[in-house]
């Protein structure tokens, strides 16, 4: 179960009990609603059952967005072990793909941008650290183990195991995310 992996990541960071984390961490609240309705969205149940459940899902997601400031649409693809370090201001496009064991800080936007062949949404690899205020936009790829620096605007591909920073983001280091994840 992917939600168990999410809880495990939180436990690794805080050394707190699963119960305390589930009761107090807004990121886990948003992930629970996402995981539940994403399972329905990806299921093979008949449309006559699935469609009304997903309508309910939209209301739950809007409710969780209002109380946490985290937008995780059920249509997004998010790997296990996501860690949302701080709540609020996190917006993810429904078409986004995020790999396993990534960290997202407050104020991160992952969304649609670009024109022509560059229009689209990002694909984020595994073990990617996205610092506070980062914007990752357009039909780009962020490689495994990358670090996106705070307040960076990422609109081009990011190589695996590198750190990018700035507006627009440029590679500043060949250090990967192992110290952050």
Automatic annotation (TrEMBL):
UniProt-listed PANTHER family: SERINE ACETYLTRANSFERASE
One GO-annotated biological process of the protein: cysteine biosynthetic process from serine
Chemical reaction(s) catalysed: L-serine + acetyl-CoA = O-acetyl-L-serine + CoA
Enzyme class: transferase
Keywords: Acyltransferase, Membrane, Transferase, Transmembrane, Transmembrane helix
EC number(s) given by UniProt: 2.3.1.30
GO molecular function: serine O-acetyltransferase activity
Superkingdom per UniProt: Bacteria
Any one annotated GO CC term: cytoplasm
Keyword Membrane tagged: yes
Full protein name: Serine acetyltransferase
Stated family: Belongs to the transferase hexapeptide repeat family.
Record field: transmembrane: 20-37
Entry annotated with the keyword Transferase: yes
Provenance organism: Dokdonia donghaensis DSW-1
